[in-house]
């Protein structure tokens, strides 16, 4: 942990300054492109014609593990001689490692908030682009024995519900949805992360959990997903960015392009992610 | 025939060597001194860093929240309860391992130490599988007595005891092995049953070892995180102990996390130092 | 002489039928096998005497119930105790290093037994205080064992064992933990307390002096077997094994007696005053041996052997010479005599013993 620990407020100010500077420099370097999101794509399309090689190191949110692993293999097939190496983990942890100088080319976060940690430090190149969104869903026991159909049903007494802690993205999102629906829910536990919350339902210790659609998808038939309309009010954006210290920027850009391409979106949709 | 009693210069019999030698301050060999100091620095440096980087100015704000005191209180209560559970179950277990001979004793001893090597989170999952609402034993606890342990303070105690008890058992077993079993024999020749001998002779004899083990277990229970959050979940005031609060604060407010850690550190140092002085020196 | 039958000779247990100790202790442990018959009348003090590893302590543990009997029996005042656990036996033990509970005061150590027997705390303490008074330890009642001197600790241990009113008192090397200075005093005190004790006392020791001073009867154990038993004076006069002979300081030989001669298994014959025939022992003290550098004139009633000095050892103002040669023997002589003879290891000497100073008895 670095200076961010000591004086959060000062840091944020300093970070904002750095981001402004970075934005300025980004503008000056790429003033020919009016749309920041088009700039990498232009670079990538240019890159695709040339030969890619080397290793691309991708730090990605844990929820992306399956789809990104698939995409990584695809990328390696499309560009022989390249290798995509992943570091999956909690977005906060990954952001902390990046700002502490961990060698990475690409960062894909599960929330704009965690991405902000990296951009505030000036470790990102350009403005991060949202490539997918994740929506909340209620995970219930297989067969939904408690007949849960809405967020409101979770407030029924005698029902053991687990939420993510509000300090982690899925908890913050759930809280947002609950507040928006004017519901008060006392859970059995505020879990440390989305996987722990889901595990509680998988082990039948809890009757329901509010988690991401992708997590319900990944859990297969061990839980049953129940969509609820209020989830629309708490959708999580997944931003992706090239990192300043990227050792293999060209290949990294190409990987980001693959993620954003129709092909990449297809893989991500299969995992339960929504289009941005 | 081993002779434990030694005859001192004044003809006094001094069982278990009552002669206390003064530690020689001079002449610590360099090959010992250098690694010793390096080891000390290694252990203290992270704590020092915590102090240096602590948000001293905002510390009062962090510490006035009720959630902090709730978590601290819960930590102290559950660690103490877990230690009590460990004592009640662990001391007899240590006695069984040290004083009786049964087939597979070595294997059982290895099993007892298993929670030491098991990642605590795995321990928590194992506890869920055993004592959870749907667990091997837990389902009967639920259907017969209506007891469910996960998400309750009792669950916190269970998780902490699971992780902390091996420390106590190992410590007490070691002390028991070092203690002369013939004191128990002497007690039985005076008409004491084996249990009376244990209670009135062995227990007071190994009290220092029990105290040391209890302190270790308490400290371990106080810092317990993985098994607790996995088995008992995290709910302020009910199952959110200090380590859980620290971990979750670390997710979005590292300064608050450090502040909480400092509170936990200060309290545990105060308690451990107090216990050491009272227990360890009084009985030596 | 070993006792495989259950009524060994020389025992007066018949005097008071059913009272006292009547035991045959068989304990097998690996290659070692203890098989000892032991009887004693109430009021009698029996010493189990033997070298280290002879099985004395095993026998004592079997009597106390701390080691199970492999075979045999154990009756005390007519009641069978073989299967009784130690806590239920009316047996008190004074352990070699006393094993006073270090966390209890002398008073509470002594009160421990009565408490376990069901006495109330006050009652037990009163009884303990009485015992300590009898031992002259009233002033030390509150002291923790580590504050007691060796002699005091020994008396506390004795009081603790006696406070349970045992019918059998066992003492394991009761004086071994003491230094020479306190030993003399404690031995005399222990003798007095044992004399007052009305039930059976069995003490285990490897020290013949302790055994002779404290016990009415000695049972000598070697290799798990009784090799000799009887009154201390009898055993001292007529030892039957090398171990006992050495303990009591005698040269002992076994051979075939033919009138006034005993032909030794080890070679030469010894002239004696007693007239015997058949297997016999011959014994004489080292002080009966005279040493000469040149061969002295041999009289008829005189034994003469050619020997070599194997070792010399000082005993007070005496020198003990270990001799080998025609006959292995120990001889005592004064320092002056040793100097005059110029004794040194390897020196050749003639050893003479008058027949009148030997003692022959049937084996």
Automatic annotation (TrEMBL), chain A:
Pfam families under this entry? SBP_bac_11 (PF13531)
List the PROSITE patterns hit by this protein, alphabetically. PROKAR_LIPOPROTEIN (PS51257)
The region annotated as signal peptide is 1-25
The record, for CDD domains, names: PBP2_ModA_like_1
Q: Which domain of life is it from?
A: Bacteria
Keyword line: Metal-binding, Signal
Could you tell me which InterPro entries the record lists for this protein? ModA, ModA/WtpA
Coiled coil start-end: none
Quote the NCBIfam families the UniProt record gives.
Answer: modA (TIGR01256)
PANTHER family recorded for this chain?
A: MOLYBDATE-BINDING PERIPLASMIC PROTEIN (PTHR30632), SULFATE-BINDING PROTEIN (PTHR30632:SF0)
Write out the similarity annotation: Belongs to the bacterial solute-binding protein ModA family.
Instruction: Please give the name of this protein.
Output: Molybdate ABC transporter substrate-binding protein
- Which organism does this record belong to? Streptomyces similanensis
From TrEMBL, chain C:
Q: Has the keyword Mitochondrion been applied to this entry?
A: no
Domain (Mop): give its ranges. 298-362
Instruction: Please tell me whether the keyword Ion transport is annotated for this protein.
Output: yes
Alphabetized CDD domains for the sequence: ABC_Carb_Solutes_like
Q: Keyword set for this entry?
A: ATP-binding, Cell membrane, Ion transport, Iron, Iron transport, Membrane, Molybdenum, Nucleotide-binding, Transport
Q: Note the Pfam families from the entry.
A: ABC_tran, TOBE
One term of GO molecular function: ATP binding
- The UniProt record lists the ABC transporter domain at 11-248
Q: What is this protein called?
A: ABC transporter ATP-binding protein
Lineage from the top down?
Bacteria, Bacillati, Actinomycetota, Actinomycetes, Kitasatosporales
């Amino acid at each position: 942990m670095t200076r961010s620990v000591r004086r959060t407020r000062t840091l944020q100010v300093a970070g904002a300054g750095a981001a402004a500077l970075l934005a300025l420099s980004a503008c000056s370097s790429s003033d020919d492109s009016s749309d920041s999101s088009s700039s990498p794509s232009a670079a990538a399309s240019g890159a695709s014609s040339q030969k890619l090689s080397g290793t691309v190191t991708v730090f990605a949110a844990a929820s992306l593990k399956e789809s990104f692993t698939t995409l990584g293999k695809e990328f390696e097939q499309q560009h022989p001689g390249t290798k995509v190496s992943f570091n999956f983990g909690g977005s906060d942890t990954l952001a902390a490692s990046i700002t502490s100088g961990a060698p990475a080319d690409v960062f894909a976060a599960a929330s704009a908030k965690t991405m902000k940690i990296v951009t505030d430090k000036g470790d990102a190149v350009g403005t991060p682009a949202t490539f997918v969104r994740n929506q909340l869903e209620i995970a219930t026991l297989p067969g939904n024995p408690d007949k849960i159909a809405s967020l409101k049903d979770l407030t029924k007494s005698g029902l053991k519900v687990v939420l993510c802690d509000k300090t982690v993205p899925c908890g913050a999102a759930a809280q947002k949805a609950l507040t928006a629906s004017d519901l008060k829910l006392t859970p059995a536990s505020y879990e440390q992360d989305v996987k722990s919350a889901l595990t509680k339902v998988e082990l039948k210790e809890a009757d329901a959990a509010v988690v991401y659609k992708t997590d319900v998808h990944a859990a297969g038939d061990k839980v049953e997903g129940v969509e609820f309309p209020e989830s629309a009010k708490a959708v999580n954006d997944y931003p992706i960015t090239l990192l300043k210290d990227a050792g293999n920027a060209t290949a990294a850009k190409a990987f980001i392009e693959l993620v954003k391409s129709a092909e990449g979106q297809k893989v991500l949709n299969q995992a339960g992610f929504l289009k941005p | 025939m081993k002779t434990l009693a030694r005859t001192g210069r004044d003809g006094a019999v001094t069982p278990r060597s009552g002669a206390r030698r003064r530690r020689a301050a001079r002449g610590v060999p360099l090959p010992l001194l250098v690694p010793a100091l390096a080891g000390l620095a290694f252990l203290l440096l992270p704590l020092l860093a915590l102090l240096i980087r602590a948000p001293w100015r905002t510390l009062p704000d962090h510490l006035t929240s009720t959630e902090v005191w709730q978590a601290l209180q819960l930590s102290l209560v559950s660690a103490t309860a877990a230690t009590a559970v460990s004592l009640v179950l662990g001391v007899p277990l240590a006695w069984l391992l040290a004083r009786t001979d049964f087939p597979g004793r070595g294997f059982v001893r290895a099993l007892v130490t298993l929670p030491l090597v098991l990642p605590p989170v795995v321990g928590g999952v194992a506890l869920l599988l055993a004592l959870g609402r749907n667990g091997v034993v837990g389902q009967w606890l639920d259907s017969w007595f209506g007891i469910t342990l996960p998400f309750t303070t009792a669950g916190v105690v269970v998780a902490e005891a699971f992780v902390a008890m091996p420390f106590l058992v190992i410590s007490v077993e070691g002390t028991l092995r070092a203690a002369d079993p013939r004191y128990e024999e002497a007690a039985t020749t005076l008409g004491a049953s084996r249990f009376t001998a244990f209670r009135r002779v062995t227990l007071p004899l190994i009290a220092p070892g029990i105290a040391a083990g209890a302190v270790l277990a308490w400290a371990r229970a106080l810092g317990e995180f993985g098994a607790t959050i996995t088995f008992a979940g995290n709910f302020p005031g009910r199952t959110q102990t200090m380590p859980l609060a620290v971990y979750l604060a670390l997710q979005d407010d590292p300064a608050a996390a450090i502040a909480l850690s400092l509170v936990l550190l200060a309290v545990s140092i105060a308690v451990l130092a107090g216990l050491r002085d009272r227990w360890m020196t009084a009985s030596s | 002489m070993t006792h495989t039958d259950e009524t060994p000779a020389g025992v007066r247990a018949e005097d008071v039928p059913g009272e006292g100790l009547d035991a045959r202790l068989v304990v097998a442990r690996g290659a070692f096998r203890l098989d000892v018959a032991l009887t004693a009348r109430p009021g009698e003090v029996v010493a189990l005497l033997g070298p280290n590893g002879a099985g004395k302590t095993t026998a004592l543990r079997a009597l106390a119930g701390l080691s199970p009997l492999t075979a045999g029996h154990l009756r005390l005042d007519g009641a069978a105790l073989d299967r009784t656990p130690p806590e239920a036996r009316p047996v008190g033990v004074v352990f070699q290093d006393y094993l006073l509970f270090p966390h209890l005061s002398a008073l509470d150590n002594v009160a421990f037994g009565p408490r376990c027997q069901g006495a109330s705390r006050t009652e037990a303490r009163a009884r303990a205080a009485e015992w300590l008074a009898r031992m002259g330890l009233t002033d030390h009642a509150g002291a923790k064992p580590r504050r007691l001197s060796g002699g005091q600790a020994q008396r506390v241990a004795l009081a603790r064992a006696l406070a349970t009113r045992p019918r059998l008192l066992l003492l394991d090397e009761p004086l071994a933990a003491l230094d020479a200075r306190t030993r003399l005093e404690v031995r005399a005190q222990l003798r007095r307390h044992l004399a007052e004790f009305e039930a059976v006392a069995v003490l285990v020791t490897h020290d013949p002096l302790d055994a002779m001073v404290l016990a009415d009867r000695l049972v000598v154990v070697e290799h798990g077997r009784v090799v000799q038993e009887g009154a201390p004076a009898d055993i001292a006069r007529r030892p039957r094994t090398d171990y006992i002979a050495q303990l009591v300081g005698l040269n002992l030989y076994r051979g075939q007696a033919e009138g006034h001669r005993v032909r030794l298994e080890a070679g030469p014959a010894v002239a004696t005053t007693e007239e015997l025939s058949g297997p016999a022992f011959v014994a004489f003290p080292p002080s009966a041996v005279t040493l000469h550098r040149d061969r002295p004139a041999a009289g008829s009633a005189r034994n003469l052997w050619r020997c070599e000095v194997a070792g010399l050892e000082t005993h007070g103002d005496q020198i003990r010479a270990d001799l080998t040669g025609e006959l292995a023997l120990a001889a005592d002589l004064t320092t002056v005599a040793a100097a005059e003879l110029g004794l040194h290891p390897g020196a050749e000497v003639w050893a003479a013993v008058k027949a009148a100073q030997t003692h022959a008895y049937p084996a």
